[in-house]
Amino acid sequence: MPQVQSIRRLRRNGESVASIARKTHVSEPTVRKYLAKEDLSAVPSVRKPRASVIDPYLPVIEQWLAEDRANWRKQRHTATRIWERLRDEHGAEVSLSTVTRAVARLRREFAAERDEAFMDLVWHPGEAQADFGEVDVLLRGVVQRMHHFVLDFPYSNVGLVQLMPGENAECTCLALRNLFEWLGGVPERIVFDNAAGVGHKGYGEREPRLTHLFQAFQAHYGFDCSFCNPYSGHEKGAVESKVGMVRRKLFVPRPSVWSLENFSAGLPDRCLELATKPHYRKDTEERGLFSEDRAALLPLPGKRFDVVTWRHMKADRYGVAAPGDGIAVPRTGRTRAEG
Fold first, then answer.
1. Are residues 254 and 181 in the same domain?
2. Going residue by residue through the chain (339 aa), what tens digit of pLDDT does each one get?
3. Measured between alpha carbons, how far is 55 from 206 in angstroms, rounded to an integer?
4. Number of domains in the chain
5. Residue 45 within any structural domain of the chain
């Protein structure tokens, strides 16, 4: 730095570049470099990261750790197990301590990402979220654990309900069909829970694996659908809270049900009676906003979808059916069969 100061002082005194180079015993390009430099402030040194033997295997480790998030916590990879798989499956010549440090760092990074704050999603009229909850009802005098299907419209915060015996694809499609017909239209997009019976989306998968029945149902009514990531309830928080609210408002005390179909037919009207309060963020009644949701719905198709899955069953002499070649029985439980 004293030499730089001398170069700049000689220049201020009118010395030429060649004269400065001779007097300071440096080259002329060096003189020009320090004369052209406007800022001599100290800058932090940048330490170049040194390559590690574990670097080529980091994508593989990240993939294994991502898959672990969908598994039971007692069946996840330990650092030792990852080291063994790298050694046996990939021929990696790395030490256990190196793998342990890398796994710990990746897990800390994932924990930091998971603890980040979330932004509110923006929902447009005509978009919906779907989810199931569980309730006890007195079905024909017997207490039964049933499932209430909730179709929530986040724009208006209005949720519609159907009572179903299960959470499979048949029950989901039947509940949706009933609500579509009550609404007089079809939502443009529906967001489903990853655990729904209509399909499943695993970690790292862009497209969910859908059941054949739901694929036909979706094509028939023409709506788009998307699935939440595993263990990501915040991605459909509106319907998550609506499931609990409906349980408290409509199923406490425990209702007595004789006809499941008739009971479900009256639930949407009862849900709409709960929408007389102002929206929790908009200075408008929820039922008024719900009219905008209904106005944005897609039209119903000309023909009703038959929610049924046919399976071939073989009956013995006692009338007990078992899977195999024989009569085709609908999975919905309707007493209809074809030979």
1. yes
2. 677 778 878 887 888 888 888 888 888 888 888 788 766 565 666 666 677 888 888 888 988 888 888 777 777 888 998 999 999 998 988 999 999 999 998 888 877 666 555 555 667 888 888 888 888 889 888 888 999 998 988 888 888 999 999 888 889 899 999 999 999 999 988 888 765 567 665 555 666 678 888 888 888 888 888 877 554 554 555 677 788 888 888 888 888 889 989 999 999 999 888 887 877 667 788 888 888 888 989 899 888 888 887 777 777 777 776 655 444 444 554 433 333
3. 26
4. 4
5. no
Look at residue 142 and tell me if it is in a domain: yes
Whether residue 284 sits in one domain with residue 209: yes
Residues 6+ apart with CB under 8 A from 102: 54, 58, 61
Nearest to 181 by CA among 20, 302, 308, 17: 302
Asked if 121 and 138 touch (Cβ cutoff 8 Å), the reply is: no
Helices (H) and strands (E) in the chain, counts: 12, 11
**Co-location of 76 and 20 in the same domain:** no
Domain span including residue 93: 55-114
**94/18 same-domain check:** no
In a domain, 290, yes or no: yes
Residue 47 lies in a domain: no
